[in-house]
Amino acid sequence: MSTTEKSAPSGNSNSLSLDWWAVIVALLLALAVRFDVLKNVPW
Amino acid sequence: MASSTSLPRVGSDNRLLDALGMVPGVLLLAGIGYAAKILERSVNAYAKAQHWTFPNIEYVLWAILIGLVLSNTLTIPKVFQSGIATYEFWLKLGIVLLGARFVLADVLKLGGISLALVVVEITLSLALMTLLGRLFKLKPKLTSLLAIGSAVCGVSAIIAAKGAIDADDEDSSFAIAAILALGALSLFTFPAIAHSLHMNDVSYGLWAGLGVDNTAEATAAGALYSDAAGKVAVLAKTARNAMIGFVVLAYAIYWAGRGQAERVTNKAAFLWKKFPKFILGFLVMSVLVGFHWFSKGQVTSLGNLSKWAFLLTFAGVGLRTNFREMSQQGLRPFIVGALGEILIACLTLGLVVGANRIWGL
Questions:
Q1: Could you give the count of Cα atoms lying within 13 Å of B82 in the half-sphere of its Cβ?
Q2: Do the Cβ atoms of B280 and A23 come within 8 Å?
Q3: Whether the predicted interface score ipTM is above 0.90
Q4: Rounded to whole angstroms, how far apart are CA atoms B152 and B9?
Q5: A35 CB within 8 Å of a chain B CB
Q6: For residue B58, how many C-alpha atoms fall within 13 Å in the half-sphere facing its CB?
Q7: First and final CA of chain A: distance in angstroms?
């Protein structure tokens, strides 16, 4: 049991949290754009 | 009581310090990215003013080149390292935000075509890399890692598989180095080949998404061709990433069957753990745009935010590519990887040309 339960989640929990952080930050940015907190972002 | 209240504070202090420690590296990424944008504009303007025939070098290439030059000529101080490592976060943030630039119908159509091609690509890549690994007498688990890395999504697939099949650290660093070196090469070869074949944006984007292994390099290879190709490359690569759980699970079951890895008891939980969650964010964005939750100007703003996030990613791709370190990893895995990648690039090119004939991309 040990290998799968030890190593897979540990490598995975990092990427999991990184993925979720990216989603959360993107949704916050989307809300900021939607409610005009961020307007006309230049490129 | 005292210890239970003080421990979380220590944890949060550490997290704050970790976050602050990333600032120099993130500033370096932003600085390189911004310099790339300025170089793109000024070099092109200067060439035009001097009536030179000069290829239009986009910010994507400038950002990668500046990063490559810095990381291969200087020793990047440690203070920048943790911030540079955030390039993966910017990549995922950029992909989720890019969802706003896709109408859901396009996601379903192109995503459906991509998924169909991805299944064929994964099957062929796994078979090919396994065969090459056996021919070159690589260690079986190293062969598995190279096969997973080239079939699905590069470094993250190798890291996900490493624990599941109980592979050595040495094997995984060999496989990661080979995949990264070949990804760096594909940045220059894929656009050049596509230009010589006069490929359209959608076909090229699909090819880059299917043929380039690491998500950051696939995104950059697509963007190097055109903005539209970059979008399609991200979509195709995202469809490929979605398969990571299934491929890693299959290998975990195979190695557990041979008594060389632990058994996976809950397959659904395993698949969910390995599933890249940022894909859900990408789909949510696309659905929100489909329901006209954003105005046209707001969609443009979200697209521009996505481009800024990618700009930091491209700077990071250059900065973390160190040819000296890669050359120390050994030649045989690299040769197997290179041979496999060349064949996979040809196969995926054939798949895309075939799909173009069938579906008229």
A1: 10
A2: yes
A3: no
A4: 40
A5: no
A6: 16
A7: 50
Q: Who contacts B36 (Cβ-Cβ below 8 Å, separation ≥6)?
A: B59, B60, B62, B63, B66, B311, B314, B315
Cross-chain Cβ contact A33/B277 below 8 Å: no
Burial (CB < 10 A; 0-12, 13-18, 19+), residue B139, is middle
| Structure tokens that stand for A19 in this block | 């993925």
Domain boundary assignment for chain B: 93-359
| Residue pair A26/B285 in contact by the 8 Å Cβ criterion | yes
The Cα of B354 is separated from the nearest Cα of chain A by a number of Å equal to: 34
Give residue B55's pLDDT band: very low, low, confident or very high (50, 70, 90). Answer: low
A14/chain B closest Cα distance in angstroms: 11
Rounded average pLDDT over B75-89: 91
Contact B333, B175 (CB under 8 A): yes
Amino acid at the residue B222: G
Of B274, B266, B313, the closest CA to residue A16 belongs to B274
Q: Distance (Å, rounded) from C-alpha A39 to C-alpha B203?
A: 34
Q: Which alpha helices (H) appear in chain B, and where do they start and end?
A: 2-49, 59-73, 78-84, 87-98, 104-135, 140-151, 154-165, 169-196, 201-211, 215-225, 227-241, 244-257, 267-274, 278-290, 296-319, 323-327, 332-359
pLDDT of residue B143: 86
